[in-house]
Design goal:
By secondary structure, the protein is mostly beta strands. The chain has no helices and 8 strands.
Length: about 100
């Protein structure tokens, strides 16, 4: 299933949480912190400004981004969970 975000929204696949602590303790799902980093799967056309012009987005498909812990809304897309958020929720692009 393809998902095309509208406007200044982006679709992000969150990285998986670690299964173990540094000390080797296995964490149950309820104790895992959700990572605040993910990969951009799709982007909208851009933010519509007050004068009607469209401002292109700074992030692009394939970027790895850092976002706040409460950013976006989580949806199930097929067998995967994805986040749908506005570009303004992105704090930084991770350069490798």
């Amino acid at each position: 299933m393809n998902l095309k975000p509208l406007g200044d929204r982006i679709v992000v696949q969150r990285q998986e949480a670690g299964e173990k602590t540094k000390g080797g303790i296995i964490l149950p799902d309820t104790a895992k912190e959700k990572p605040q980093i993910g990969k951009v799967l799709a982007v909208g056309d851009g933010k519509i400004l007050k004068d009607g012009r469209v401002q292109p987005l700074q992030v692009k498909k394939g970027d790895t981004v850092l976002f706040s812990s409460y950013a976006g809304d989580e949806f199930k897309l097929g067998n995967e969970k994805v986040l749908l958020m506005r570009e303004e929720d992105v704090l930084a692009v991770v350069e490798e």
